[in-house]
Write a structure and sequence with these properties.
The structure is a homodimer. Chain A folds into two domains: 159 residues, Rossmann fold (3-Layer(aba) Sandwich); 120 residues, N-(1-d-carboxylethyl)-l-norvaline Dehydrogenase, domain 2, CATH 1.10.1040. In chain A, strands 3-2-1-4-5-6 form a six-stranded parallel β-sheet, with helices on both faces. Chain A has a three-stranded mixed β-sheet with strand order 7-8-9. Helices cover 54% and strands 14% of the residues of chain A. Chain A is α/β, with parallel strands linked by helices. In chain A, helix 9 crosses helix 11, helix 9 crosses helix 13 and helix 12 runs antiparallel to helix 13. Chain A is elongated and about 65 Å long. Chains A, B: GO terms for molecular function: oxidoreductase activity.
Chain lengths: 288, 288
């Protein structure tokens, strides 16, 4: 398949490599050209602009920072007019559900199909080709994209346009609240004289088992808050969830609101550490 | 090893069967004698009272409902005076950390050692011999009990007397908050037009992965709130966590307090459904 891949950052880079390794005719574009060079060496075409990249594409994949950047690259650069009618745009960036719905509608007017397909799993899963991919859009367009998505992870169509982004917000809500609850649990155990590392080990395999207890609890125990998952990004996602819920008339997302409040306190005091730094905020709220 | 096992209920029954299958000389006691009969058929000795059960034990295992019942069976029945000095009491019941510390101190005066070792994983893990066992006490007593505990699951010594119970409360805090967050996420996704079953499927393998997303999310999707994990028990554990934290001077356990508040609302409206019923309470707080 002729595929254009726009955005070769920490996530997009390894994802595009999996697509290329899958034997597809790949054209790449990245804002800073240096990141495209390794792809040229492996046989990909390097485009000078988004519009040039998408001109002959059957599938256009985006992996960009946020909604406004997707807007600029897709619509502000003239790329939208260059995409062949009938092609499918798969936007794997994490943006607002309402933005994804807007993009789908505008591309649809030109006969270009849209699938929102944000991911979870971080750079480790991007590199391993094991991302959780949450897709929204029409079944036919998803079916066309799915064999390519499968090179990057496991994709599930969860609903209509925007539903993939909504599922990503649901994902972020669970991840944030689980980090907070694990931090609260380890702090309570430690203050009561238990060894947090042993508690983590003891809890594994029981009902408290989670990826967060595996990865993030270890960071808390090591007090290693070097940023892998950004608090600022996570807070943005939680605020987007509260905003999206508000638009649906949902008044009460108490776990989301609590976690957003803790992130706000953490960011005010500590800048932008790893999101497992919620422990620091809970420690602050419980002075010795 | 000569082992006495007191309490053959939904959890204790399968746990005692694993101990018997491990080749130990087992004496069992249960409040209602009917549950002892199958053990007699398999070669265990059935005792008529707790005191009779423990008389020659090197290891005494308790699996009872709560702290007051442990108090009654262990101290109110004269069993404590019948346990040979040097023996180890392993209390696998879920009781308050302060109660476990009290029991350890009182037994210690008679030269009987105490390990608190509550479990997580429910009846499935009890039957499979795959419980997560959180132990508190002295290393030597734990080392003596550990080969027997291993027949029932995986045991980790997390700290001094009471620390196992504290770890269990930490476990319950994480489990409750994760159930709440998963319910909130699925509700938001559903209200936004996504298919909750597909969202659960899409999220699996990402950072939101957990035992709760596996088991409890499925119950929410099936709207199957038949009680496997009781809300009333879970709320009792959360209140015990808040109480224990208060004794340590911890003012803020916000995830625990939020989850306890939701359980209180749920119990007031719906009685005592499965703890995955937190979805019902969140639905009520977000009328359509």
């Amino acid at each position: 398949m002729r595929i254009a891949f726009l955005g070769l950052g920490l996530m997009g880079g390894p994802m595009a490599r999996h697509v290329l390794a899958g034997g597809h005719a790949l054209t790449v574009w990245n804002r800073s050209a240096a990141k495209s060079a390794p792809f040229a060496e492996r046989g990909a075409t390097v485009a000078a602009s988004p519009a040039e990249a998408v001109r002959e594409a059957e599938l256009v994949i985006l992996m960009l920072e946020n909604g406004p950047i997707v807007e600029a690259v897709l619509f502000g650069s003239g790329a939208d007019a260059a995409i062949p009618p009938g092609a499918v745009v798969v936007d794997m960036s994490s943006i607002k559900p309402a933005e994804a719905q807007d993009h789908a509608a505008r591309l649809g007017q030109r006969g270009v199909r849209h699938v929102d397909a944000p991911v979870s799993g971080g750079t480790t899963a991007a590199e391993g080709g094991t991302l959780a991919i949450m897709a929204g859009g029409e079944a036919e367009a998803f079916a066309l994209a799915e064999p390519v998505l499968r090179l990057m992870g496991r994709a599930v169509l969860v609903g209509p346009h925007g539903a993939g982004q909504l599922a990503k917000l649901a994902n972020q809500l669970i991840v944030g609240a689980t980090i907070g609850a694990v931090a609260e649990a380890l702090l309570m155990a430690e203050r009561g004289g238990a060894d947090p590392a042993k508690v983590r080990e003891a809890l594994r395999g029981g009902f408290a088992e989670s990826r967060i207890l595996d990865l993030h609890a270890q960071r808390m125990i090591d007090r290693d808050f070097a940023t892998r998952g950004r608090c600022v990004t996570h807070l943005k996602d939680l605020d987007n969830a509260l905003d999206a819920a508000g638009r649906m008339g949902m008044a009460a997302l108490p776990y989301t609101a609590l976690t957003a409040d803790l992130y706000r306190g953490l960011i005010a005091a500590d800048g932008d550490p790893d999101h497992s730094g919620l422990l620091l905020e809970l420690e602050r709220r419980n002075p010795r």
